[in-house]
Design goal:
By secondary structure, the chain is an all-alpha fold. The protein is 68% helix and 0% strand. It contains six helices and no strands.
């Protein structure tokens, strides 16, 4: 049992979060490439990807392994992306940190998805039973190359508009120095 669920049920929840994060992340990255930020999709991507990484630590394991390391890296990257977006409002270097963090977080989720696909899908498992054969390596190198290219393009293209606060226009109602209202 994990969080009151059977391990198979918890696994389905974890996989559902991961697939939701990947789908929402794809929408977000496409938005970044088009110089826009899809607000609700961004929130969904960040929440589901954080949840995916966090729930990954709850699976029973003998020790700290590669999956745990990917989870730690993912959570750190997501923390920076969340800070950049919601606290620093993409100002200055926080813009590219958000973009790079979002693309990297999606890449890490897809990276683990590829690992899982080669472990769980029979036709892929036949191609790479140990996960070190050329088909697995080629798949991971191609995924990495695609995400590096997407990240570079997204950083170059994504420049959100700067929102300047609107101040009341001076219509002459201000008092002159030394005078009080009503003089």
């Amino acid at each position: 049992m994990i969080l009151g669920m059977s391990t198979p049920t918890f696994t389905l929840v974890h996989v559902g979060l991961s697939l939701s994060g990947m789908a929402a992340g794809a929408v977000v990255v496409l938005g970044l490439l088009g110089a826009r930020r899809p607000g609700n999709w961004t929130a969904l991507f960040l929440v589901t990807t954080v949840a995916t990484s966090a729930t990954g630590f709850l699976f029973h394991s003998a020790g700290f392994g590669a999956a745990h390391l990917v989870g730690v890296i993912s959570l750190a990257v997501l923390a920076v992306a969340i800070l950049a977006l919601y606290f620093y409002r993409l100002a200055g270097p926080w813009r590219w940190l958000y973009v790079a963090g979002s693309v990297l977080a999606l890449y890490l989720n897809v990276f683990v998805g590829v690992v899982q696909a080669f472990q769980k899908l029979p036709f892929l498992r036949l191609l790479a039973p140990t996960g070190s054969e050329p088909p697995f390596v080629v798949a991971q190198v191609l995924v990495m190359a695609v995400f590096i290219a997407l990240g570079i393009i997204a950083v170059k293209r994504f420049h959100p508009p700067v929102h300047v606060p609107k101040f009341p226009v001076d219509r002459g109602d201000a008092c002159e120095v030394g005078k009080t209202i009503g003089d």
